[in-house]
Amino acid sequence: MASPNIFFTVAVVVVTAFAIPSSWATEYVVGDEKGWSLDFDYQSWAAGKEFRVGDKLVFKYTQGVHDVVKVNGTEFQQCEVINNTVPLRTGNDVITLLTPGIKWYICSVPGHCATRNMKLSITVAADVGSPFSAPGPNQGSQTPSSSARENAASSFRGWIAVIVTFLGVLLV
Ligand SMILES: *[C@@H]1O[C@H](CO)[C@@H](O)[C@H](O)[C@H]1NC(C)=O
Ligand SMILES: *[C@@H]1O[C@H](CO)[C@@H](O)[C@H](O)[C@H]1NC(C)=O
Ligand SMILES: [Cu+2]
């Protein structure tokens, strides 16, 4: 008959493996020190980054000067909010990336998107941090740095699992 401690250990390992990736979510300040502002190249800013489900975008700007609206591809192209989405206006708007796919954000102040480049489009990848999740469809196109990050994450989780299992065995 297996000891209840075995089940406890297995439960701890599983919970640990799931909990670690979410604690590694990244918070991106859009535009870094420039924030959400006029004439900044947000496409270049986004180009080298690997956005994942669970990560956060923070739009920083002077309240009342700009806003942030999540739009679709058409609205992004036309720099126009058609969908009467309520803009975010706090000056420190935090958006958690909840689903994978392409996301579009613009400033709805007239001219700011169309002529002053206040438009950001990013691609959010699925969170592949859990050892139990299947490889994402973007697996083949990953940059070396993100692969390295994942490998490091996997081996770190692996070691945590080994240590937790060892402690669990000691308890039995
Ligand atoms: C458009 O608005 C509808 C209803 O308010 C919402 O469900 C949908 O997600 C919006 N689409 C986009 C691209 O924001
Ligand atoms: C974007 O939203 C508008 C308004 O809801 C809609 O008319 C348009 O077809 C949408 N475009 C895409 C690509 O979903
Ligand atoms: Cu603006």
Automatic annotation (TrEMBL):
Q: Which UniProt keywords apply?
A: Signal
Q: This protein is called what?
A: Phytocyanin domain-containing protein
Transmembrane region(s): none
Q: What is the lineage of its organism?
A: Eukaryota, Viridiplantae, Streptophyta, Embryophyta, Tracheophyta
Per the record, the domain of life is: Eukaryota
Do the record's keywords include Signal? yes
Could you say which residues form the signal peptide?
1-25
**Which species is the source of this protein?**
Hibiscus sabdariffa (roselle)
User: SUPFAM superfamilies in the record, alphabetically?
Assistant: Cupredoxins (SSF49503)
For whether the record's keyword set contains Zinc, the answer is no
> Short name of one Pfam family for this protein?
Cu_bind_like
Q: Where is the Phytocyanin domain?
A: 26-126
